[in-house]
Amino acid sequence: MEDTVQIGSRGDFGLWAIEVAKQIVGEQGFELANAARDGTEDDVRAAGNALGQAITNVLLEVYDGLLEEEPADAT
Fold first, then answer.
1. I need a surface site. Which of 15, 28, 51, 63 has the fewest CB within 10 A?
2. Is pLDDT of 23 > 80?
3. Residue 71: strand, helix, or coil
4. Pairwise CA distance, residues 46 & 62, whole Å
């Protein structure tokens, strides 16, 4: 994700999560479906791993964003 999004409520987070999920499924899910249809077991495994990595990357990005918002004197 390259755009910065301001999340001020649970609803904002839900909308962001839906958009990110659509993007990931659109890109990585398509690759996984192609591998399942035309590829080898290794192709399917690689596509599945790429899907999992895309999800992990987004979750870590959100977590890192939460840490950056923490006030400096909160220690």
1. 63
2. yes
3. coil
4. 24
